[in-house]
Amino acid sequence: MLTSINPTMKAFAVLIPALLLAFSFDPLTPFIYLVFTIAITFLFGKISFKRWLLVFSPFLLLAVSFAWMTMLHPSDTFSGGEVIFSLWSLEVTSDSFWTGISLGLRSLSFAALSLLFILTTDSTKFMLSLMQQCKLPPKLTFGILAGYRFLPTFRYELQVLKQAHRIRGVGRARGVKERLHQFRRYAIPLLANAIRKAERVALAMESKGFTGESDRTHYHEMSINKRDWVFVSVFFGMFLVSIFISYQLGILNIFGIEFEKY
User: Fold this and answer.
1) How far apart are the C-alpha atoms of 26 and 94, rounded to whole Å?
2) pTM, full prediction
């Protein structure tokens, strides 16, 4: 189901709540949204859990490091409260502890939202949607698509260059000077091939009538329907629900300002 959502609408549904989560400094709001994002990803995304976990694992380490550094070195706004424990000359207070947990959960929420978009979105459809719905210039759109398609080719050409150098007796670079020289040996042929490919693609597009004008027809029409609006509404609505729950429990914190229920 997630693959059928308009990519531009999906991008808005992911980006704007992520920006709003950056203002939340309580641990419950990002935790609720993290659980919601993961649930949506696996219920409607048809994504392998093993693949998702493999990509998500580095963000776990990053979130733990963010949380730990925030606990040890908090700002003056979040350094109050009782001392929970001390490490050498550093003291971790209750405010800094929960702020660190909140930062770690926010980082994981950003990562989960990003993976939901990346793993369920076709890059070509995304660029076509940006061109048709967001009026991105066709020259820029097709230029990005062409460059994206060239990336696997460049990887293959780099492997061919390395094998050709080994056959001719060129060993691996060891020092900094040799590495710079090796980079030059690889960069010049790759750049020359890239220029030739770009010229061929430009000639092919011109021969097929491509002028770069925005007023043009499209073979693949990208549209926005009710399902896309429902998807965006659900993501915005869930953010409001998480804020409401945190407020009801009396732990809502926006930029260090606590909102207690009276």
Assistant:
1) 12
2) 0.77
